Structures are given as C-alpha cells and as structure tokens.
Amino acid sequence: MSLFKRLFTALRTGSVSSDEWDQIRSTLIASDLGVKLVDEVIEKVKSAKPDDAVLAITTHVKSWLSNKSRELFIDSDRLNTVLIVGVNGTGKTTSTAKLANRLTKSGSKVLLAAADTFRAAATEQLQTWAGRIPVEIVTGEINSDPASVAFSAATKAKAENFNYLLIDTAGRLHTKQDLMDELGKVIRVISKQSPVDEILLVIDATTGQNGINQAKIFIEAVGVTGFIITKLDGSAKGGIALAIEKQTGLPIKLVGTGEQITDLDDFDSEAYIAGLFE
User: Fold this and answer.
1) Domain ranges in the chain?
2) Is 157 left (phi over 0), alpha (psi -120 to 50) or beta?
3) pLDDT one-digit tens code per residue, 18-54
4) Which of 27, 73, 123, 250 could be bridged to 114 by S-S, CB 3.0 to 4.6 A?
C-alpha cells in the first residue's frame, strides 16, 4: 500500500520543492484521503523536525482511527441480530453470506433473511450461498414487503434459539429518502421481536469520497454501528479506510478480501497503518 512512501522519500532528501509538495499532495488526494486530511498531514510534516517527521505523522494518522470496538456484538444469552445495509453494487449480499459462513464455522447457529425482495437475483444468490455453507434462510416473494420477511425471520430465529440473525436488505440509494424510510421500517419491525444489535454498512473502497457521503447519510438515517469494506486491496487507494473512520468515528469491523466465501477478515488497524508506512 505504502501510501506515504513518496512523502517520506522526499523528506529524506532534506529539501522539498514547491513542485514536489504539489505532487505529493496530488498523490495523497488520489488515494481517497480527501483534501482536508491531506492538507492536515502536510502541515503536520512541515511543522515537524526532519528527524521526528515519521513518528509525528504516524502518531497523528493513528489518532484518526476509531477507538470503538471492532468486535462483532455477541450476547450468548439471546438472539443477536445484524442488519447488512448499503447501496447496490458494494458487495452487500456476498458480505452477508461471508459473515454467515464465518459465524457458522465458529460454532454459532445462524439464520439468514433475504429481505432484498426487489431483486430476484439477490434472493437467489443468498439462497445459493446458504446451501453451500449450509445455513437456513427465510425468503419472500419478489416485490413483497421486506419488513414482513425480516419479521418472519426474527420470529423464527427467536423461537428456534438461533445465535445470529443476519438480514440482507435491498440496496438503498442513499439519496432516496423513501427508500431510507423503508429501511427504518424494517428496523422497527425487527425490534418488536429482538434488538437490532449491529447495523453494518458495506462500502466499496473503490468508490472513494462518495463512500464517505454514503456513510454519513446512512449513519444519520439508521444508526450504523460499523463498516464492512470491500475491495480494500494493496493499492494506494486504501486511504479511504483512514478517511471514513476519521470522518465518522465509527470502526471498520470487517474487510472483504476476495470472491470466495472465506474471504472476510477482521480489520487489523495496526497492520493497515504499517502498510501505509512501509
């Protein structure tokens, strides 16, 4: 990833020209850090002594990360309900299946709910994954009420002593208020049966600053508790992880690393930071 490699290479030369600062700034902005955070980094470096610059910027950047727990909520005495939300195309349904597989492999009894009833393909995809894992799944008719599917699943999960209920919701356009309101309805209906313990927002790392805009609106609308970031690969575009935690204060809990059912990892903030400063 080595996001700050060019910055530190320039510092080691002992003299950085105006053109070099402009090039460094452009590189960092292209990494999806955002203009404000990039300028903050550069000002921090300029004000530090050359020998202290690396430590100063490392410490400063680490302070941007969320200090909230990255662990998935678990109460062993009751059903734990996790809602997976996000816009279309972020990898939401696949992430739901990956999380189901992960929890099942750790010994939890998991129920899936295919509440993305507006896309037959989404339900079919989740059914396919459910068969492979395997886990039980609750589905509804195409274009049926998503809240009804969620309620049925919550009722079943609670009655049959499941450890986790994972609900895949329709891909919301965060700019469409009526769709966001509908998501709020799903949450209210589920809460009649069981608390909604986690609302995980899936964000595609390649969407850049638009991902942060999505996050802010979802947080305001439905109370997101954390993020699943997909496509956060080894490129310098990975600055989005820093930016999203700095802007929202919420933790990235999981990272999608590939297309396989096992390709879902904890977000290791120490390894991530180390990668930025290689």
Assistant:
1) 5-62, 80-276
2) alpha
3) 888 888 888 888 888 889 999 998 888 888 776 777 7
4) 123
Residues 6 or more apart whose CB falls under 8 angstroms from that of 134 comprise none
Q: Is there a binding annotation on residue 192?
A: no
CATH 3.40.50.300 fits 80-276, yes or no: yes
Distance from C-alpha of 122 to C-alpha of 114, rounded to nearest angstrom: 8
| Averaged confidence pLDDT in the chain | 88
Residue 232, annotated as binding a ligand: yes
- Check whether 169 is labelled as a binding-site residue: yes
206 confidence band (pLDDT: 50, 70, 90): confident
Residue length of the chain = 278
Reduced to 3 states, what is the DSSP secondary structure of residue 66?
A: coil
Q: Is 93 annotated as a binding residue?
A: yes
The answer to whether the annotation marks 172 as part of a ligand binding site is yes
Q: Which parts of the chain are beta strand (E)?
A: 80-85, 110-115, 136-138, 164-169, 196-204, 226-230, 252-256, 264-266
Q: Tell me if 178 is assigned to a ligand binding site.
A: no
Q: Is 208 annotated as a binding residue?
A: no
Per the structure block, which two tokens stand in for 189? 């209906």
pTM of the entire structure?
A: 0.91
Q: Structure tokens of 90?
A: 């972020």
